[in-house]
């Protein structure tokens, strides 16, 4: 074994480095022999051929291997050929601005366009439920096809009216023939029966209503409406005559010459006079409105209109009393005939302003309408009182312009005015029978305050015919509230 002197360390380090270099060279040669030479086409993108048919396959050849032992390895197979079909395409120029839909001049404002569609979300007057759509189109949602909206609309109705009757004072009484002459026919006596007096209840009378309106715009926001109603004449006729029973027939009154004590004018008196009495009453009423309506609310198939305008009405009533009495032979008035006529006419004329709400709702072919309104104004009342008396004795007639309750103290024309309130309620149910036409049935009620009737201007305090009256009877204006109600059956041209 050789001994290396410690005095030579540099020679030892150089020898170690030489051995390490030899080992590195040997391993590097082995790794180089196992490395394949890089292909010339590796890492280069070859795009597919674009054509309508099938492209021929492209073979990819591998590069030769640097070492001889790689020559025996198989050649790498190419990938399956790609076939891409060409499709149509659109060239978009990025510099070109996109097209913008031109808006009409009224876009965003309330109203409808020419096609009948709402041109803004606000809508304004669009979507009229009465037309089933917007503006002047599709006016018939019930029958499934549209028709142009008309500017005119209206209705005609037949009405069965009931009205407030007159509260008549006791005008005709009777007493048994055994009653003392001094108290026969007088009020307050146990033997007296009132034949005419008290509340006269009105019977049903025929009448009618009509309305005509015009829309002021195509979107049915505003309209002018004219309404008219009329109640047929109502008459009552009470007739009483001597039936041969021997009973008294009289006209009761309060005798002003006897401190207003109860008294009676005997028309039929056993063995003295015979005769008859007739009481007739007549009543008529009519009126109308001129209104301006404005759409207030719409939605859910309905609409509510507010309206205001002018209202008028007339209520005229009359009462006529006719007496015919003939003195019997053997009596104190033998051969004398007395014919008396009293006439009382009460005229009421209302003029005022009115406002209210008119509601309409449609569900398919069915619809309902409700109107509520109230009027304020002046009720002008007139009282016309006339009298006439004909006395016949021995073929000679004596005429007088006085009657029994119509005397010099109250004969003539008298008028007065008073503030009046006139509410009204109307409800109708309708059914569409053909495009734009509804049949309807409904109920209506209206009232007028401070109305005078003939019974309210009639004073039953007077004197007997042999006494000249100076202070009684007087002109009275006892007013009341006058109501009218009706069942209505109509035909409406829907708007």
UniProtKB/TrEMBL annotation:
Keywords assigned: Signal
Name of the protein in its database record: Uncharacterized protein
Keyword Signal listed: yes
InterPro entries from the UniProt entry: BBP7
Top-rank taxon, per record: Bacteria
Signal peptide: 1-33
Stretches for region Disordered: 36-83
């Amino acid at each position: 074994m050789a001994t290396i002197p410690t005095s030579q360390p540099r020679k030892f380090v150089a020898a170690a480095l030489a051995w390490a270099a030899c080992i590195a060279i040997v391993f590097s040669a082995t790794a180089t022999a196992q490395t394949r030479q890089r292909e010339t086409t590796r890492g280069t993108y070859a795009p597919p051929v674009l054509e309508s048919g099938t492209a021929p396959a492209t073979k990819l050849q591998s590069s030769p291997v640097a070492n001889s032992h790689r020559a025996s390895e198989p050649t790498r197979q190419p990938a399956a050929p790609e076939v891409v079909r060409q499709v149509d395409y659109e060239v978009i120029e990025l510099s070109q601005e996109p097209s913008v839909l031109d808006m009409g001049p009224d876009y965003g404002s309330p109203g409808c366009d020419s096609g009948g569609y709402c041109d803004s979300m606000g809508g304004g007057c669009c979507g009229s439920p009465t037309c089933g759509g917007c503006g002047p189109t599709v006016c018939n949602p019930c029958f499934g096809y549209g028709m142009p909206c008309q500017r005119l609309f209206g209705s005609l109705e037949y009405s069965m009216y009931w009205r407030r009757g007159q509260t008549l004072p006791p005008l005709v009484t009777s007493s048994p023939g055994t009653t003392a002459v001094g108290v026969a026919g007088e009020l307050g006596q146990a033997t007296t029966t009132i034949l005419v007096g008290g509340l006269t209840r009105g019977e049903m009378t025929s009448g009618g209503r009509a309305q005509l309106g015009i829309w002021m715009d195509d979107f049915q926001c505003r309209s002018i409406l004219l309404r008219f109603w009329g109640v047929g004449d109502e008459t009552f006729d009470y007739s009483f005559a001597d039936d041969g029973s021997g009973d008294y027939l009289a006209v009761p009154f309060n005798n002003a010459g006897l401190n207003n004590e109860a008294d009676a004018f005997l028309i039929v008196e056993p063995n003295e006079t015979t005769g008859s009495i007739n009481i007739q009453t007549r009543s008529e009423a009519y009126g109308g409105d001129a209104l301006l309506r404005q759409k207030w609310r719409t939605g859910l198939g309905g609409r509510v209109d507010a309206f205001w305008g002018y209202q008028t009405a007339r209520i005229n009533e009359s009462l006529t009393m006719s007496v015919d009495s003939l003195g019997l032979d053997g009596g104190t008035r033998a051969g004398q005939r007395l014919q008396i006529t009293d006439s009382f006419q009460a005229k009421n004329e209302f003029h005022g302003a009115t406002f209210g709400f008119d509601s309409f709702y449609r569900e398919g072919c069915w619809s309902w309408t409700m109107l509520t309104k109230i009027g304020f104004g002046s009720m002008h009342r007139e009282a016309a009182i006339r009298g006439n008396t004909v006395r016949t004795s021995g073929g000679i007639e004596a005429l007088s312009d006085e009657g029994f309750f119509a005397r010099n103290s109250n004969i003539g024309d008298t008028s007065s005015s008073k503030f009046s309130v006139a509410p009204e309620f109307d409800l109708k149910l309708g059914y569409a029978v053909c495009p734009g036409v509804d049949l309807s049935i409904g109920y209506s009620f209206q009232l007028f305050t401070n109305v005078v009737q003939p019974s309210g201007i009639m004073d039953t305090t007077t004197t007997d015919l042999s006494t000249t009256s100076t202070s009684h009877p007087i002109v009275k204006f006892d007013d009341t509230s006058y109501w009218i109600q009706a069942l209505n059956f109509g035909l409406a041209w829907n708007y």
